[in-house]
Amino acid sequence: MPGLPTADPYLPGHGDPSYSVRHYDLDLTYVPDGNRLRGTAVLSVVVLDDTSRLVLDLAGLAASKLRVEGARLKKWSARSGRLILQLDRTVSAGGELTLTIAYGGSPQPVIDPHHGDAGWEELEDGVIVAAQPHGAPTWFPCNDRPDDKATYRIELSAPSGYTVVANGTLAQKRRRASVDTWTYVMDRPMSSYLATVQIGRYVTTEHAPGLTTIAPPDADLAGSFDEQPAMMAFFERVFGDYPFDAYAAVVTDDDLEIPLESQSLSTFGRNFCSTDWSQVRLIAHEMAHQWFGNAVTLRRWQDIWLHEGFACYAEWLWSEESGGPRTCDEWARHHHERLASLPQDLVLADPGPELMFDDRVYKRGALTLHALRAAVGDEAFFGLLKAWATERRGASVTTSEFLDFAGERTGADVAGLLGPWLYETALPGFPQG
């Protein structure tokens, strides 16, 4: 039997490059008692390369029934957290198929030796889904690769008393007996790792139209999450219009070590309800990901700096804008000094799976942008950020594409300027304007 495909070397055993999913329709039911999930997923697929086999990612849950429209399903099997669908003939590139998968079980996080655990996780009373980079298959069958963007409809039924939050806009909520059914629609392209559901006993605070915090009733949002309207106004000024229809911050009743990024929403623990800069900066960081990471998304995991470096730089910008502890340039100098004292063994544009979430990727990525800003000036730099976020919205991008785009926009030799920051291990000197 031929080996199973890998779409990205940073994430072995995930993704099938022979096809793309255009739309996911998920119909789910969750029972907290016993952590039981059952669902039906309908995937609208287009074939990219001639193939008679499709491989889906589904980890820890059992498929019970599969159906294919557009070709005949010869047989299917489950192996190594994946579903292998063998068709009775080769489907040519451009062919369209519809896959329907019924499945269920008790979802659990998956553990990767490089990235730790990710995916569906029970809380004390509720659920979080933190899928970056490999956790999406813990709750729905998918083509789990970052460059495969699709639209979504997510419907989830849960006992009344729980609030269900998912990507996009709430299209419908209905009650039958003691069960509420929530339907969310994400009509902008989204990578599988950015899809999420959050379930808890929450109330919703609307800060502004389309801008909410969903949190336990007694959560104190003052000085932290109630700063989001000002953050949003500032980021729209420097990055361009917010790329989705709404934005929500979900605050769990549990403490969380780090926030969780998803498209059109972010998830935080109760410990982030704090006026301390170490927590507030991450509220800004996750919001900035809506532009850099969610609307404009890496094509390959090696280019993670295009997400984390930009969001980290947004923290420094917000610190200066809001009268925080340091100006942007002061943060840059502070972290340059720190990086200079750390091992010089990281290539920013290809850090390897072991180091892709190393803090040096975040800080060196932000310093790379600071170097570009120092070289081209504020007007050209912020014009570039806004154009990149706007013109590449919905796209999957690479570092080389950013360098080409930046060079065309600014007229500078951006590839030559940023080459040492991106492709050499030694830390360049502090950027001088």
Outline the secondary-structure elements.
Blueprint lengths: L18 E13 L4 E12 L3 E7 L4 E8 L3 E7 L2 E10 L4 E10 L4 E3 L3 E8 L2 E5 L19 E10 L3 E4 L2 E8 L2 E12 L6 E4 L2 E6 L2 E5 L12 H12 L7 E5 L8 E3 L2 E4 L8 H12 L8 E2 L6 H17 L6 H13 L18 H18 L1 H14 L4 E2 L1 H12 L3 H10 L10
Parallel strand pairs: 1-11, 17-18, 18-20, 21-22
Antiparallel strand pairs: 1-2, 2-7, 3-6, 4-7, 5-6, 8-9, 9-10, 11-14, 12-15, 13-14, 16-17, 19-20
Helix pairs in contact: 1-2, 2-3, 3-4, 3-5, 4-5, 5-6, 5-8, 6-7
Domain count, please report it.
3
Which architecture of the largest domain does the CATH hierarchy give at level 2?
Sandwich
Note the run of SSEs as H and E: EEEEEEEEEEEEEEEEEHEEEHEHHHHEHH
Cα gyration radius (Å): 22 Å
Weakly predicted, low-confidence segments: none
CATH superfamily of the largest domain: tricorn interacting facor f3 domain
Query: Average pLDDT across residues?
Result: 97
Which geometry do the CA atoms define?
globular
Biggest sheet, open or closed, and with what strands and sense? 7 strands, mixed
DSSP summary: helix tally: 8
- Quaternary assembly: single chain
Share of helix, binned = 10-25%
Report the CATH C-level class of the largest domain. Mainly Beta
Task: Write the CATH fold name of the largest domain.
Answer: Immunoglobulin-like
How many angstroms separate the termini? 59 Å
Strand arrangement in the largest pleated sheet: 4-7-2-1-11-14-13
**Strand count:** 22
Helix-strand makeup class:
alpha+beta
Question: Which strand-content bin applies to the residues?
Answer: 25-35%
